[in-house]
Design brief:
With about 325 residues, the chain is of the alpha/beta class. It has three domains: about 80 residues, Arc Repressor Mutant, subunit A (Orthogonal Bundle), CATH 1.10.10; about 120 residues, 3-Layer(aba) Sandwich (D-Maltodextrin-Binding Protein, domain 2); about 100 residues, D-Maltodextrin-Binding Protein, domain 2. Helices cover about 35% and strands about 25% of the residues. Strands 3, 4, 5, 6, 7, 8, 9, 10, 11 and 14 form a ten-stranded mixed beta sheet that branches. The chain has a two-stranded antiparallel ribbon with strand order 1-2. The chain has a two-stranded antiparallel sheet with strand order 12-13. Helix 1 crosses helix 4 and helix 2 crosses helix 3. The radius of gyration is 23 Å and the shape is globular.
Length: about 325
Amino acid sequence: MDLDQLHTFLEIVRLKSFSKAALSCYRTQPAVSAQVRQLEQEMNAPLFERLGTKIALTAAGHIFAEYSEQILELRRRAQDTINELERVPRGELVIAANEATCIYVLPRVFSDFKKRFPNVQILVDRSYGSHVVEAVLENQADFGITQLPVAEKRLQVAKIHADEIKALIPPQHRLAGKDQILPADLAGEPLLLPKEGTTRSRLNAWLEPVEEQISISMELDSTEMIKRFVMAELGIGFVAAAHCKEEVEARQLVARPLGPESMVRQIGLIYRKDKALSKAALGFIESTMNHSVGEVGRVSKNPPGKTVLNSPASPGTGSTTSPSNAPVAKISAREG
């Protein structure tokens, strides 16, 4: 048994497919099948049940998967510890975030971090919504950047960004001159909504009083698509203020707050509470908090190896505080 076999086995478990795991591991499917046979012979037990074209873990497979994850995590910790012996940290950090967050929130964070840790590689896993949380929980990513609240108790959460969801309107539209947009103002207007996620859930609740009068024209997975479609006068969209600043300043779009109360969103940095943090990981937390915007915290100075995150609502609980009958076009260009 070697670590490569364990990695291949866990890829099969994650993807639920021998062929997809073969592509992920850059191997042929027969080679992957041979690795599994070797593991089964060594364990003296079948690890997978073959159910036609589908596969499922056996009882022995579930046990072996749990220990395989621990073995690979120990190997990674050993490598991180060895890397810490050098004056300059090395290795990699995997960050899970959607495309809009990577474009509008993280560039300054990445720039600051790379100046301090030039030999640490940053890998961006473009994920969307709940997939960010899942990637962190399954140790596929070291950190996640996602919209709050996050209720998962196994995660450490810190606010890093706050801004406002606004209605995005073509400059010549009748609503462009209003100070704020109320749900009733949108009766009969074609709406461009996020396909899913926390913002979509909040917009649904906001629109509920007039749900019989609104028309959802399209459901989109991309902030950039929403902006472009509003410019083309295909409807009224909804995006975070930070994501449309350039277009508003160029007078290509008009952004108006929602009423009667503004819709403020919080973005948080998440990572596993039980994760051993390397010097580079602690540095990434510090860079993120130093460039945070809105209601955010700061990184306190502490003895080497310890970082305390202070914020208005102290992270660590796993959470922070702070509809139509018309045909709908669903277009997917997922940010992640």
